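Bit of a strange request maybe. I'm writing a small parser for structure token strings and I need a real example to test against, not something I typed by hand. Could someone generate the tokens for this chain?
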Amino acid sequence: MSKLQPGDAAPDFTLIDADDNEVSLESFRGKRVILYFYPAAMTPGCTKQACDFRDNLGALTAQGFVVLGVSKDKPAKLRQFRERDALTFPLLSDTGLDVHKAYGAYGEKTNYGKTIMGVIRSTFVIDPDGKVEKALYNVKATGHVARLTKELGIS
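Reply from user aminoacidic:
Good idea to test on real output. This should exercise your parser:
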């Protein structure tokens, strides 16, 4: 799995959201997109990260950003996650992991000292022309959104 670098073209995709609607990256051309990959809906770390994005969404959208969360969960579980935690941005289902792999967000990782295959918690900032601005791999769920907004100059 090769990792994306700033300046690379962001791989296009069309995925199903929590309401079974198709969402494609191409439809967000002209906007800056924060695309983040997380291991599993409704787990403690993923909930913390999603709620942090939710709580900062106003500041992000005011600066022209769109937030999209991607996991391998099915749409029904994404609906439960969204409703349970009042998430106000699209959650996308990539059950086949094709988009995860295209972004380098699935592969070997270390978990409790063992090397396993799995989702690599990752965040990408994509510019209005569809190019990768930032590619952040192996991010920590707690504090990630605060660090990202600081890096992006958003308070």
